[in-house]
Specification:
Elements: H1 3-8, H2 10-27, H3 32-45, H4 50-78, H5 84-105, H6 110-129, H7 144-161, H8 166-175, H9 180-203, E1 216-217, E2 220-221, H10 222-243, H11 249-271
Helix pairs in contact: 2-3, 2-10, 3-4, 4-6, 4-9, 4-10, 5-7, 5-9, 6-11, 8-9
């Protein structure tokens, strides 16, 4: 891979970064649902070994979610739609789950991660297509055991596949009658709680035996991180502003179709 090839991809990578940030702010899905496939497909186009591209995509996505989540959480907080009580109830369990998910992901093959990501993206796609939410209660659970289980599941799965947790936490909050705007704002903060501990684990990963490329720290690939970084932060603020001005149902359905196509492609690549 030469510098000319890398430079020729600056524009498409930049567009992906900006779009990922907008998606993060708009839907509260953490951006990883776009970041991971964008990074993976770009690296494979550049000729990277497919056995490591998924690990790079997951780790670099979570590293990018840290500043993106800070940006989108601050934007939602200024609009008063971040529920810090929910975050407090889930906080410790999410952190533990994030550590465990990031550690476990390093032991899974690239195809295994593709399959898990594809399943998660399919779930997120179908959830976004639905007009009516499935309601199971009027308030979020307060039981410590239940919250511990919820936090562990959200943290571990999200850290394993490189997403910010919104794909799991938003349907959960909607099911307990949390309004969409509040669920989106709170999911942005949950993404930050997931991304920080899992990124630390990925940065510390031992990769010398896996032939990771130059300019990597652990499993995080710096060239992609540095190009995406300013664009995802900027895009997140755009997404937040759009989220509070539009009825997002039509937009969600368009995005859900796009997401489903990506999910099917990931599953296909994992199984062939």
């Amino acid at each position: 891979m030469d510098y000319n090839t890398l430079l020729s991809l600056v524009i498409p990578i930049s567009i992906s970064g900006l779009f990922s940030g907008i998606i993060a702010g708009l839907f509260g899905v953490g951006g990883g649902i776009i970041l991971v496939p964008a990074i993976v497909f770009t690296l494979e186009f550049l000729g990277f070994n497919p056995s490591i591209t998924m690990h790079i995509g997951v780790a670099t996505s979570l590293a990018l979610i840290v500043p993106t989540a800070v940006s989108s959480t601050w934007g939602h907080h200024k609009k008063g739609v971040v529920d810090f009580q929910i975050i407090k109830n889930l906080f410790i369990a999410i952190i533990i789950g994030s550590f465990l998910g990031a550690i476990f992901a390093q032991k899974i093959s690239g195809d295994g991660l593709r399959l898990i990501f594809g399943i998660m993206a399919t779930f997120a796609s179908f959830n976004m297509m639905r007009k009516a939410q499935f309601i199971v209660g009027e308030i979020m659970p307060t039981n410590i055991s239940i919250n511990s289980l919820i936090g562990l599941i959200i943290g571990s799965i999200s850290a394993m596949v490189g997403i910010g947790g919104g794909a799991l936490s938003i349907p959960l909050m909607n099911a307990f009658s949390i309004a969409q705007h509040r669920a989106t704002g709170t999911a942005s903060a949950i993404g930050l709680v997931i991304a920080i501990p899992s990124t630390i684990i990925y940065l510390m990963a031992e990769t010398s035996h896996l032939y990771f490329p130059k300019w990597s720290i652990g499993m995080v690939y710096l060239p992609v991180f540095l190009v995406f970084l300013p664009l995802t932060i900027f895009g997140a603020q755009i997404g937040v502003n759009i989220a509070h001005k539009l009825d997002g149902l039509f937009l969600r359905r368009i995005f859900s179709v796009f997401l489903l196509i990506m999910a099917i492609r990931m599953i296909y690549l994992a199984l062939t």
